[in-house]
Amino acid sequence: MYRIKNNNKVCVRFHTAAGEEAQVDFGYIGIQPNPEDIRKKAWIFNMRLSYSRYDYYEVVFDQTVTTFIQAHIHAFRHYGGLPGIIKIDNLKAAILEANFYEDTYQEMYKKFSEHYGCGIVPCRVRKPKEKGKVEAGIKFVKNNFFAGRKFDSYQELVVRLDEWTKKKNQRIHGTTKKIPEELFNQEERAKLKSLPLVDFVIPEIIRRKVYNDCHVVLNHNYYSVPYEYVGKIIDLQQDDKLLHMYHENKQIAVHTKSLGKGEFITNQSHYPKYKHFTVESPIYRALYSEKMKAIGNYAEKIFNLLLIEQPYHWYKTAKGILSLQKSYANEVIEAACERALSFKITSYSKIKNICKTGSYNLPIENYEEDK
Is residue 12 part of a domain? Predict the structure, then answer.
């Protein structure tokens, strides 16, 4: 009986039907002239239809999500349609956390795929052969087009790359033994999904730092952010009516956009509970109500009157009365509040004076306690 040993060098070849899949990847191509003819670090984007091996190439100058999506849109236009799924490497532009079972997609890339109705399939970590077709395409363009060539302008680079790509798509492919362009036109083009009536609109991403007051500034207005993100950089995306806030691909807040200037659009829940120092805050009012009640019933009655008589400044008087606890016992303050109520007084300074002069010991005349 023979034992079959595991051989990690053995691989399974993946076959796909016409229009089923495209593979995409980036490859670094050194310093190249950008559209302003300034020499910058550059990458080559390659989308390859897995069935026909028909290639689309585009030179880009960053690997951001926006650039990644825009290159996809250009490729779809070039093909006149799109495949059912797109197989990608674990690029930072597309996948935040490489996990075969639960991938966290960049929100924008996910919305892009939903707009076009195509699935996104990431390769497993350290499994490059799962997108070996486009890996070969990247290697080939680097070694056969860019190697040893220097371009004087971006326009020259684009024209020469386009010419080279057309010739490449018209040559017999080493594996299929067929010409990619002919295979694409005869069998695959008709199998591609139709493009939507309008292209995906890539939202502008604006980066802002969250200030200590739990707000960011946008177009001269101030929008609140949950206090956990103070000091951090967040991403803002806006449409006609709403402003969406994200941190590490997680939506943390949504606001209706202000049409004015200098306005504060604040969600009070974005502040920590211990910082809810607003006169309208039920938590803040309840806190002071309990403190006044601890002194006595008359102190609590004065607090309730303050809410009616001084709806926007009640806390100043309440704080003053509570500060008397540093010098007087609660029984003294409570007696002073009772005497003040007999004269329909809620003033902190007069209640303090009653405590100081000891007049809370004097008899109270013509005063009927509310039943």
Answer: no
> Which range among 18-32, 271-285, 323-337 shows the weakest confidence by mean pLDDT?
271-285
pLDDT tens, position by position, 83-92: 999 988 766 6
Sheet with 215-218, strands from edge to edge, namely 215-218, 221-224, 264-265
| Shared domain check, 332 and 217 | no
pLDDT tens digits for 294-309? 999 999 999 999 999 9
HEC sequence for the chain: CCCCCCCCCCCCCCCCCCCCEEEEEEEEEEEEECCCCCEEEEEEEEEEECCCCCEEEEEECCCCHHHHHHHHHHHHHHHCCECCEEEECCCCCCEEECCCCCCEECHHHHHHHHHHCCEEEECCCCCHHHHHHHHHHHHHHHHHHHCCCCCCCHHHHHHHHHHHHHHHHCCCCCCCCCCHHHHHHHHHHHHCECCCCCCCCCCCEEEEECCCCCEEEECCEEEECCHHHCCCEEEEEECCCEEEEEECCEEEEEEECCCCCCCEECCHHHCCHHHCCCCCCHHHHHHHHHHHHHHCHHHHHHHHHHHHHCCCCHHHHHHHHHHHHHCCCHHHHHHHHHHHHHCCCCCHHHHHHHHHHCHHHCCCCCCCCCC
Bridge partners, 344 (sequence order): none
Q: Two tokens at 116?
A: 């076009």
Backbone angles phi, psi at 112, to 5 degrees: -60, -50
Q: Cα(272)–Cα(214) distance, rounded to whole angstroms?
A: 10
In a domain, 13, yes or no: no
pLDDT for residue 241: 86
Is this structure's pTM higher than 0.90? no
Write out pLDDT tens, residues 190-203: 999 999 999 998 87
Place of tokens 């371009």: 151
Sign of CA dihedral 359, 365, 367, 371: positive
Number of domains in the chain: 3
**232 shares its domain with 151:** no
- Looking at the structure, do residues 328 and 303 belong to the same domain, yes or no? yes
How far is 18 from 236, CA to CA, in rounded Å? Answer: 39
